[in-house]
Fold:
Amino acid sequence: MKLYSTKHISPDVDLKEAVLKGLPSDNGLYMPYEINPLPQKFWDNLDNYTFCEMAFHVAKHLIGDAVPDEALNKIIQDAYNFDAPLIEVGDYSVLELFDGPTLAFKDFGARFMGRLMGYFLKDNDKEVNILVATSGDTGSAVAHGFLNVEGIHVTILYPAGKVSDIQEKQFTTLGANITAIEIDGTFDDCQALVKQAFLDKELNEKLTLSSANSINIARLIPQSFYYFYAYKQLDDKSLPLYFSVPSGNFGNLTAGLFAKKMGLPITKMIAANNSNDIFTIYHETGVFEPKRSVQTLSNAMDVGNPSNFARMMDIFANDVQKVREEIAAYSFNNEQTASCISNIFEEYNYIMCPHTAVGYLGMEEFVLDNDLNPYYINGVILSTAHPVKFGELVAPLIGEEVAIPERLQSIINGKKLSIPMSANFDVFKAWLMSK
Ligand SMILES: *Cc1c(COP(=O)(O)O)cnc(C)c1O
Structure:
């Protein structure tokens, strides 16, 4: 598999280099040269494949011989020990992507990336140290993604007292190769410490430092798997297929574009945004203007400069008309999001997280806008998080508590293990050097 930088300055790389480097040095993003339609045999067998078998064929098709079959199969089997069921909710279907350990769809990307990095580093004699600063969700997805991956140690820095209890438990109770450092400071302080560590000559001579960047191609590839899995679960595959994707950095939606290039018959994608409407405005006007993010109920989508926009521009050759042909875009505010959660619960007894609600609104608006009959389409909404993660927000909207799933209960009962530290680089550096 060969990949290029969207800026076309840095040299082409193979998958191993793209995954271990994360970002090309010209500040572009890595893109695969070839994303071709899957062979007929894949479609003929799709109904009989398990999630893992299906994922193996999609991955193999994309990455070629970058990873031998046996190793790839092991990575996938090990990463995906949970399901992604398609549930009927009203006129549409919801693809639940929150059955992984951190109860959010980011598990699909992070668990594949962790194991793939582990595979590429298996012959390294030096341990790789991954440093992550987190304000909550990234930390837990990365921690669980790399948990028990041999040859890799993960250090997570987070601001003391500024992440929710559940979030904190999700990355401080793991132990093994995961260390959490509780910084007496803000998220920005954590990020500054990590950045400074990457620049420090002495540290880099002693340790092999790496990041687990959210725009690593190893997180994008596996996100295409579940689009095929949704299609596999549809009753009538002949109806036009639409996906509504609650979007922030647009990794999820870009993975859907990859699936379409591989032959998945998607009629149109719907980009569902909260009040951070940079993409919606671009879609309307053709002008892309990043701005400061505003805080909303669907906070994992509070992004003012979507990092995968460059990949989308690459796919559509910077042509907004082409973007409009394949993607619709809508934005919804907090009030609309909250009423959607209440209404869907009242009508169908189904509980959604605020991100999923934005996706549901996107599907409804699209159907209205295009005068479609919901009975004659396959409208699939990607559900990106379990509602219990936003229980305090959701409970008053539905008038009852959100039940805590068992796998979360065991995390809540776990013992918090973290190292308190001041936001001082010399202290952090001394700690790293002593490892
Ligand atoms: C990260 C995240 C999103 C946004 O996904 P992108 O790939 O950044 O567009 C949506 N919902 C939840 C719950 C998330 O954690």
In short: Residues 104, 106, 137, 246-252, 300-301, 355, 384-385 surround pyridoxal-5'-phosphate (CB under 6 Å). The first helix runs from residue 15 to 21. The mean pLDDT is 94.
